[in-house]
């Protein structure tokens, strides 16, 4: 069973680390998409209930959008 909180925090930390290491905007956006899909797959293959899985995926979608906005702000302010 995956630890959802750890998965979610690792997703956010990976994107923020990419920004800190000066990844290009294209790399950051691709990374966000890739990590979001990876997290969804991890949730889908977990033993959580279907309702919990849907709630987690919904939260991940909000996180993806927030990270996308953070990426855009980072590169437009740089």
Task: Write a brief caption for the model.
The protein has 3 helices and no strands. The protein is mostly helical and 78 residues long.
Descriptive account of the structure:
It is a single chain. With 78 residues, this protein is mostly helical. It has 3 helices and no strands. It has helices spanning 4-20, 25-44, 50-77. The radius of gyration is 13 Å and the shape is elongated. The model has no long low-confidence stretch (mean pLDDT 95).
Specify the overall morphology.
Answer: elongated
Q: What radius of gyration results from the CA coordinates?
A: 13 Å
Largest sheet: none
Number of helices: 3
Quaternary organisation:
single chain
What's the order of the H and E elements?
HHH
- Could you list the spans in which at least 5 consecutive residues all have pLDDT below 50? none
In percent, how helical is the residue content?
Answer: over 70%
Q: Which structural class best describes the helix and strand composition?
A: mainly alpha
Average pLDDT metric: 95
- What is the rounded distance between the termini? 40 Å
Q: Provide the β-strand percentage band.
A: under 5%
Q: Strand tally, please? A: 0
Give a topology summary.
Elements: H1 4-20, H2 25-44, H3 50-77
Helix pairs in contact: 1-2, 1-3, 2-3
Name a few traits of the molecule.
3 helices; single chain; 78 residues; mainly alpha
